[in-house]
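Recall the central idea of this unit: under ordinary conditions, the amino acid sequence of a chain determines the structure it adopts. In this exercise we apply that idea directly, starting from the sequence alone.
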Amino acid sequence: MNKKVLIGITISTVTALTQAQSFAQTAAQETKTDTYIYLILGALLFTLAVLFASIMIFESGERRVRPAAAAIAATDEALLMKDHEYDGIQELDNPAPAWFQFLFYITIAFAVVYMIIYHMTGKPNSSNDEYVQEMTIAQMQKDELVRSGALINESNVTALTEKADLEKGKEIFTANCVNCHAADGGGSVGPNLTDQYWIHGGGIKNVFTTVKYGVPAKGMITWQNQLNPKQIQQVSSYILTLQGTKPAAPKAPEGNIWTDSTTAAPKDTLKK
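Accordingly, the structure predicted from this sequence is:
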């Protein structure tokens, strides 16, 4: 067996591996069974065995007809010289030991088998499977954060309008806020929440901020340690629904009339 034959076997093997992979993927998609996968795996292993056997036979034949390098004197190195040179550099025909080459061939076989098992059969967790699993877990964690309101803050909070959220906000207000603002929002120690006057600004973002951080200088504690962001959003949204109602004993207005600049009509700059 000469080098040309060996090269031909190698090219045929690579072609067979490529075609087998394509066929295995197509078969797995069409039949959704493991039969074809195992057949292709067996064919690949057989092809690799033929390739390795051919290489070993070739190497052993070469060694039989080539004298050992240790038995040749330094003056006879020309017998081991290959018939090519690069920039004046010549190469001795002294290949790596058989055990080293055999170990190298084993790594090739392992790589092929690994590719088939992890990227074609889909039996163990492939890198794609692990990616999908991690993304699923991350999505579940994100959904839980959204559900609990952990992602809500004073910069992205929006007013809630659903009946269930407003009822929950009313429960929180009744349990925590009536001592200072009265049950109907008319105010007592704290300001009246039903008029248009606000000390720290109206609107959902300002009210959310006030409830979250409190006003310690005026006796209002911070509620971020007792209520989660979702609950603060609910009670702030409920407070906004008290605007325009008629409390039994309203407290005198405090602060200034607040207008939402984000919804105000733009001024006509062409008018003088």
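The two ends are 101 Å apart (CA to CA).
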